[in-house]
Amino acid sequence: MKESINLRQIKHLRYYRRRAAAALRRFDPRRKREEAMAASPPLSPPRVIARHVSFFFLLLLLLLLPLLALSKSSPRPITDDEIREKKNACYADIESGLWGWKCRASVIAKENCALLCLSPRCYELIYEDDPLEEGEKDFVRGQEYKYCMHKLSMGDSLDGVKGAFNF
To answer: pLDDT tens digit string along 143-167?
Structure first.
């Protein structure tokens, strides 16, 4: 036997369907996002453009900052005090063992390593073929080394540095 559905039962079904749909809408995550979007007014076109422009300039600044730091606004020669400070830092590195045991083997080995630490390019140019030896005091090569560091600090070419103080 087929039961007949009366009008009262149809109303109850519709009522429970609406309540179930309303409950589902209440817990829908898209609904919260839509309500939040509706609560905050959209940005006006000038504000959107201003935000994009400021982001562009910030990005440009971050890209150019390393280049600005590397470029020298006005080259100046390295001073004797700066050389002395850097050489003392090199001696400290050698004493701490960063340069290995060969640099701590003797006073002259320590001096050669300090000169190499101070400026590898100048050391290669002036001392690499004939490093300092025990008891040697080479004032001419010492002056050439300082002259080399001076030219490097100015960004000049190192042509003519070796032999510049031979009389």
So the answer is: 999 999 999 988 888 888 887 777 6
| Rounded Cα distance, 164 and 147, in Å | 9
Give 42's DSSP letter: P
Q: At what angle do helices 80-95 and 139-154 cross, to 10 degrees?
A: 110
Rounded Cα gap, residues 131 and 112, in angstroms: 7
Distance CA 127, CA 140 (A): 11
Quick one: tokens of 122? 């100048």
Cβ 147 vs Cβ 121: under 8 Å: no
Q: Which residues of 107-142 are buried (b: 16+ CB within 10 A; e: fewer)?
A: eebbbbbbbbbbbeebbebbbeeebbeeeeeeeebe
Domain ranges in the chain are: 1-40, 42-71, 80-154
C-alpha triplet 141, 146, 151: angle, nearest 5°? 120
